[in-house]
Every structure is written in C-alpha cells, then in structure tokens.
Amino acid sequence: MTGTEAQADPRRWKALVFICLAQLMIVLDSTIMNIALPSAQRDLGFADSGRQWTITAYALTFGGLLLLGGRIGDRWGRKPTFVTAATGFAAASALGGLAANTGMLLAARALQGVFAALLAPAVLSLIAVTFTATKERAKAFGIMGAMAGSGSAIGLLLGGVLTEYWGWRWTLLINIAFAALAVAGALAYITDKPSTAARAARLDLPGAILATGGLVALVFGFTQAEQSGWTAPAALLLFALALVLLTAFVVVQRKVKAPLLPLRVVLDRNRGGAYLALLLSVAGMFAMFLFITFYLQTVKGFTPLQTGLAFLPMSVAMMTGSTQIGARLAPRLPARALMPPALLVAAAGLVVLAQITPHTSYAAVVLPGMLLLGLGLGTVFTTVFGLATAGVQPQDAGIASAMVNTSQQVGGAIGTALLNTIATTSTATYLSAHAEARTAGTVHGFATATWAGTAILTAAALVAALLINHRPAPAETPARTPQPTR
C-alpha cells in the first residue's frame, strides 16, 4: 500500500456513490422535463411560449450563477454547500411538482437552477479533492463522466416512464428521492474542510454581479436567437450586453485581490483547452439530442417510452467509454493521444446519424451512430473532467469545477440555437423546391444540422490536439500542481 492510499479517506468510494447520484439528478433535469412538457401544458393550460420558458428558466439561473456557486463552495465548504444545495433542489422540485399554475412551475424551475448552480461545482470539486492518486482519480472521473454523459439519455427514458404511467408531476417529484439519498450519504460519508485561504478571502461581489449578468445575457441571447433569428434586435442586444459585462468582468478579475475567477485557472493551457473542448463537444452532441428525439417520435412514430428506450444503448456506450476506456487510458496516455481520436470517433457517430431519411431504420442508422457517439464522448468526458481540475490549488477547486459546468451550459445554449437555426433554414430551403414533401424536408433539416454538429466535434478534436499537452503523473502518486503553461 502506498503512502497516498494509506492517507486516503477509507470512505471515499462510498462517498462517490452519493456524489454521483447528485450529479445524475442535475443532468436528468436537463431532459426529463422535455418529454413531460406537453402533458404539463395541457394540465396547466399555458401557451407555447410558456413551454419554452419552462426550459429557459432553469438554464438561465443555472448557467448564470455557476461561477458564484463554485466560489461559495470554496469559501463555505463543499460538504455544507452540497447538503444545502441538494436539499434546496428537492424543495424546488416539490414546488414544481405541486404547481397549481404556470407561475409556480416557472418559479420552481428557476429555483432548481439556483440550487443546481451551487450543487454542480460542489460535486466535481469534491471528487477532485477526495481522489488524489492518479489511477483512482481517473477511475472516479470515469464514473462521473458516465453519469454526466448518459444522464440526459436516462432522463428521456425516465421522463417517458413517469409521464406515461404516473403523470408529468413525478418528473419533478422524483428528485426528492434522489436528493434525500444524496444528502443522507453526504452526511454519513463525505468529509471536506474549506481551506483557510478560501475562507478568509472576501467574496468578489463586483465580479459576481458582472459574471452572473454576463452569463445570463449570453445564455438568454442564444435562446432569443433560436426563437427569433440571429439578427433579431433582442438577440443582438443581449449578445452586446454579454460582451460588455464579461469584458468588464475580466478587467475586474485582473485588479481585485481575491477574484471570483482567478485567471490562473483558465490561462493554464491544459485547463483552458479542456474547457473549450468540452464547450464544443456539448454543442456538437446537441445535434443528436435535439433531432433524433424528434425524428424517432414524429417520423418513425415512437412513443415517449420507446424513444427513451432507444437512447439506452447510447447510455451504455457512454458508460463503457467513461469507465472502461477513458478511466483506464487517461492515467497511461498523454491527453493529446486520447482526446482527439475519441472526439473523431464521436464525430463519426454523427456522420452515421446524418444519413437518416424518412425510411431508414433505427437498427441500421440510428443505433450504430449512437454507439459511436457514446463511446467517443464518454472517453472524452472522463479526460476533460480530470484535466479541468488537475493541479488547481485547493481554494480554487470549486471555481475550476464551476468552469466545467459553465462550459457545458454555454455549449448547450450555442448548440441548441445554432443547430436548430441550421435545421430550420435547411428545411425551409428544401420545402421551397419540394413543397409537398414536408416529412422529407424536416428530416433533411435534421441531417444538415447533424453534419454541422460533426464539424463542431471535429473542431473540438483540433482544439484538443493543438492546446492540450498534459501527460499523466506516475501511477499512484498524489496529483501535483503543475506550473501554468501559456
């Protein structure tokens, strides 16, 4: 037994179970409500615009408050932040599940986003500070990557089951059970103390206001672009506001003594490259979640439950990529030798999915495409999560973890807006020449946007190849703090 193993918390693997359960709950909520929305709309009687806001309310508060949530975890302590956030998330979910009108549902979704912004960075930073041996760290992040990658697909399945058999409200109420288990496990098995430096530092309120305002404006801008077009005045105004606020945020971070986001966290080429590659990966994979769901239900006639089941093989592939490929190879191979090939495998999956027509079968096209995409992205997520938190000082673990989630949220917003715009434009062009072939035009738009997703994943592979030069430390030694390379 090495010195590292002897000093490690013997309860760390039990703690990981409950940490990952909280992560699964967060990721589930990004998709579980999608299938339930038509039922909720009929029950509460809200307009189509309200349906969009049910998703947007969660995304805005989650994406906007992530950096602040990460720094709060560093200062207050990751364990109390985890417990408080999971409890608050359960309470917000209960409010939504019991909603009597649209206002209550939207308020609940916004509150879920607030507590998710506290919980998500705590989840990742707890893993980063709990597992310090190289091999164990890779294994823990492999399990985490499996939860992060497959959670959206599991959400589609669970949403279909709950909506079909129990009702849409249970897609929210189920979080109470997840949160209760996570909190009980955290109280029993998680040990963590905030660093003295982090606790003593003053909270950067100007930075928090600028970062929150800038991220909210950015995510909302992409939402407006998706709804009204990229040249819509509202979208352009929001993008301009985001640029101003985020530029001011960077200026403030360079001058204050205790910045919300120390620039050393993102200027390290490996962490910065990991954040950018993750952003592009999430943006590209949204092609599959956006369009294959609609394709299976509206073109192939799948029920919500059948659609959820259709995504299960991709979940298995992601878990395999995370725990069997990424977790095994990340401690042995340079990231540059692992990430670009894995991203190209994922891109190949989208190439296969882009072959869909109104008449192709699930087994011949959709299934093999999903398997390639899942294997590639599962491998990538494991490596990215390790890189994004490797070498950070303990007082910065929460904010480095928050940047991972920020990259995912911004990537999702970009992917949703950009790819949906491409699909809509492509469909309109096709229908102008084939007015009667509406189904074929819709599928043509889906396929075109999926090709765009392929290009985005290829760009992510290029970013990883050019920016990331991390090499694994010797096995079973504590993770060291490398000097930033720029």
From TrEMBL:
<feature type="transmembrane region" description="Helical">
    <location>
        <begin position="203"/>
        <end position="222"/>
    </location>
</feature>
<dbReference type="Pfam" id="PF07690">
    <property type="entry name" value="MFS_1"/>
</dbReference>
<dbReference type="InterPro" id="IPR020846">
    <property type="entry name" value="MFS_dom"/>
</dbReference>
<feature type="transmembrane region" description="Helical">
    <location>
        <begin position="410"/>
        <end position="433"/>
    </location>
</feature>
<feature type="domain" description="Major facilitator superfamily (MFS) profile">
    <location>
        <begin position="15"/>
        <end position="472"/>
    </location>
</feature>
<feature type="transmembrane region" description="Helical">
    <location>
        <begin position="337"/>
        <end position="356"/>
    </location>
</feature>
<keyword id="KW-0812">Transmembrane</keyword>
<dbReference type="InterPro" id="IPR011701">
    <property type="entry name" value="MFS"/>
</dbReference>
<dbReference type="GO" id="GO:0046677">
    <property type="term" value="P:response to antibiotic"/>
</dbReference>
<dbReference type="GO" id="GO:0005886">
    <property type="term" value="C:plasma membrane"/>
</dbReference>
<feature type="transmembrane region" description="Helical">
    <location>
        <begin position="362"/>
        <end position="389"/>
    </location>
</feature>
<feature type="transmembrane region" description="Helical">
    <location>
        <begin position="308"/>
        <end position="330"/>
    </location>
</feature>
<dbReference type="InterPro" id="IPR036259">
    <property type="entry name" value="MFS_trans_sf"/>
</dbReference>
<protein>
    <submittedName>
        <fullName>MFS transporter</fullName>
    </submittedName>
</protein>
<feature type="transmembrane region" description="Helical">
    <location>
        <begin position="234"/>
        <end position="252"/>
    </location>
</feature>
<feature type="transmembrane region" description="Helical">
    <location>
        <begin position="82"/>
        <end position="108"/>
    </location>
</feature>
<feature type="transmembrane region" description="Helical">
    <location>
        <begin position="114"/>
        <end position="133"/>
    </location>
</feature>
<feature type="transmembrane region" description="Helical">
    <location>
        <begin position="445"/>
        <end position="468"/>
    </location>
</feature>
<keyword id="KW-0046">Antibiotic resistance</keyword>
<feature type="transmembrane region" description="Helical">
    <location>
        <begin position="140"/>
        <end position="162"/>
    </location>
</feature>
<feature type="transmembrane region" description="Helical">
    <location>
        <begin position="52"/>
        <end position="70"/>
    </location>
</feature>
<feature type="transmembrane region" description="Helical">
    <location>
        <begin position="15"/>
        <end position="37"/>
    </location>
</feature>
<keyword id="KW-1003">Cell membrane</keyword>
<feature type="transmembrane region" description="Helical">
    <location>
        <begin position="168"/>
        <end position="191"/>
    </location>
</feature>
<keyword id="KW-0472">Membrane</keyword>
<dbReference type="GO" id="GO:0022857">
    <property type="term" value="F:transmembrane transporter activity"/>
</dbReference>
<keyword id="KW-1133">Transmembrane helix</keyword>
<keyword id="KW-0813">Transport</keyword>
<feature type="transmembrane region" description="Helical">
    <location>
        <begin position="273"/>
        <end position="296"/>
    </location>
</feature>
